[in-house]
Amino acid sequence: xxxxxxxxxxxxxxxxxxxxxxxxxxxxxxxxxxxxxxxxxxxxxxxxxxxxxxxxxxxxxxxxxxxxxxxxxxxxxxxxxxxxxxxxxxxxxxxxxxxxxxxxxxxxxxxxxxxxxxxxxxxxxxxxxxxxxxxxxxxxxxxxxxxxxxxxxxxxxxxxxxxxxxxxxxxxxxxxxxxxxxxxx
Length: 185
What we know:
By secondary structure, the protein is an all-alpha fold. Helices cover 78% and strands 0% of the residues. The protein contains nine helices and no strands. Helix 2 crosses helix 3 and helix 7 (119-139) crosses helix 8 (145-162). It is elongated.
């Protein structure tokens, strides 16, 4: 990406932002390349020059989301705070950001479930988070750190689907991590 001109990168950014808006409003299945081009204020041929089809565009959105998700986790997790707080903050901020992005979309459930065909990408991002958690748990002497990391990550995914907004998600995940990790130390 860095070898692209600033103009092309700006256009790509506009397209990705427009695609996110359209898909949040209409859902993945109903989103059209025409609607995305209109939202981005570009011609359809310009859109197709960047992305071959809606699937390719959606995959680029998912890759960006996964990169952001991992970066948000790392920034909130890699502090000098106590373990429970570090884990709670990392997972809370990561899942809270996803919840914030989906907030208000009547198609949130569809968009969360749509990437099943990109599961290998999600698994790779989740595995990186689990590895960070496992190392921290091991360093703290927590038994079953591998399983605990996977349970906390799965719980965060479930919490996103059940609570109404990012603040509620963050609060619930911090509470869960505090109670579970304190009991494990």
